[in-house]
Amino acid sequence: MRAAERAPLIAPGASSIEDIDVECIRREETQSHASTSTSAWGRVGRVAGAVVVASVAFAGSVAVVAHARAPVAASMPQLPRLGGTSEWRRMVSRGEVSRNDLNMAARVPEKTCSATPLTNDANDYFIKKTIDALPDLAARLGTRGGDFPHSYDHHEVEAGFMTGTNNAREESPYALPSGGYVKKIKQHGDRAMVYHFIHIPKAGGTYFNEVLANVMRSLNNKFGSATRGAGAGGVYANWITNPLLDATAHGVFQTTHYMLNKSAPFGTAKLARDYALGRRMFSKGSFNMGLCSATDAPCMYLTVLRNPFDRFMSHYKYSCLEGAEERALWLPEWKAKGECPLDPLQWFQYTQGDDWTHLLAPGAYPRDSECHVETVKANLKSGCMRYLLTEKLADGLTKMRDHLPDFAGLNVNSLKSLFTNGSASRLTPALKARLDRYTSDEDMMNRIKKSMIHQFKVYDHAVENYEAQW
Length: 470
Prior knowledge:
There is one protein chain. The chain is mainly alpha-helical. It has 16 helices and seven strands. Helix 1 packs antiparallel against helix 10 and helix 11 (370-381) runs parallel beside helix 16 (453-464). The chain is globular and about 60 Å long. The relative contact order is 0.19. The model is unreliable at 1-84 (pLDDT under 50).
């Protein structure tokens, strides 16, 4: 059964699908929850996040992307960890973790930083690194049937590259160029061929996805589809994000494989023809920062950011109190009792910070380090990206319509009706009373906010530069 898309949780020691919050199709409940043996790659999962920013890559005239090459470690050392994520989550739920233990990043050693944009090389993309590190994927990638590799099948290796924990000495957050990178297919004005939406959940991403789907349908009706029909190869058949390209944990391996190998419809000649005809491609997922390097066509990144505390509390209401997506983040014992017992502070510990900043600069652990924070800031200011703010969605859509020709047909007023956010209306009176009790605890709320310092640094930077980016 498919569940709604969720962002990945950073989860040291993750050993099964129950251990991680992936933005993908759910596995069967019979999936083993037992911890597996320690891997030489280290056990690192992922982080849930949600800031609402729609970022379209351009500066003056829309720019394309270049990326920083990550240094290759001589070995992949086993880093200190807390044990399996299931063990950690159960410790939190049983009250065995101190309420003062909020800094997960303190367990990550200090490292040297390498975050200089160098090339447009796909080898810098963390998904490509994961594929290269797992030769067994080759036999399965490229199949057109329903049985192909999912990101969560290989989350230990992938998350190591995503958070930089597979290298104990250096970290290389993915750095976009300030002005873009020239592609083989010449760019025309502020138009891209491929738009990658980096989805940060609980920030208006589902709404923005509908906006992109509407834009794509409008362009398809006018110019024809780039992913269907003659020469398209039927790659969309397995996308859970259809009609958008699948950059979720469900399909990002396959999408990356098709693009790198220039399989239909991603061949250079076809992309050039489609681009000239006005056809466009859009992707959605939390794993697509770097995917522009896999195409010869002009490419942009979009994202949506939200106040970190508001996003966190929305996620708490949604996943803990409401038990959304079939109680996907609940432990089995909670499901049996029909209740998530955690307060927001415990949920912050349980989700290990509920971060999202690494989605915008994968390759470094999301924490209050200059290497990580400054790279995320720089990526948001890059000519390769444009972002929206959840708090100003209508304004952001208007700016996209006015500044990006491919979005000129946006009817902002009609799209407003699609936007709904928040879980308050779905909470029972008892859950509302419980939430009110927590939110009135100023000490608890302030402790959570203080533990989000690097998230607020990124978000405050985005707010400060919001107008200037256009």
